[in-house]
Amino acid sequence: MTESSKPVRQLRLVLAVDDYDAAVAFYRDALGLTEEAAYQGEGDARVMILDAGRATLELANPAQVAMIDRLEAEGSPSLRMRVAFEVVDSQAATDDLVAAGATLVAAPRETPWRSLNSRLDAPEGVQVTLFQELDSP
């Protein structure tokens, strides 16, 4: 398949949030995602599109999920869907998100695949993994 014939050009994860301002403060201000666009409509309808870098879709079977949960979060089970962000400094980003309202599930720890991962429960029921690659690509 050539680059021009690939049918998908972007992965966009849409979060329906009850507290829009708190979500913006968490993802844009605390996590540092860059605002690409924001729109308002009638009835206080608001949306903000944040650039999260390159998007991938990770598919994991139950055995892999259990292994990741064991390594990343001391066996604490993850939700069916978890959002993972690659960051430059996992410890600093974890601290920033906890200060912004996330609940720490597991502090940063090195994984066998050489990343430093933490897990948090973010506002609005979203589970987040932060990972810092320890080896250069």
Polypeptide structure, described:
With 137 residues, the protein is α+β, with helices and mostly antiparallel strands. The protein has one domain: 2,3-Dihydroxybiphenyl 1,2-Dioxygenase, domain 1 (Roll). The protein is built from three helices and six strands; from the N terminus they run αββαβαβββ. It has a four-stranded mixed sheet with strand order 3-6-5-4. Strand 4 and strand 5 (115-122) form a beta hairpin. The longest helix is centred in the middle third of the chain and has 12 residues, at 62-73. The protein is globular. The two termini are 25 Å apart. The mean pLDDT is 94.
In short, what is this structure?
This protein is α+β, with helices and mostly antiparallel strands and 137 residues long.
What structural keywords apply?
globular, two-stranded antiparallel ribbon, alpha+beta, 24% helix, 2,3-Dihydroxybiphenyl 1,2-Dioxygenase, domain 1, 31% strand, 137 residues
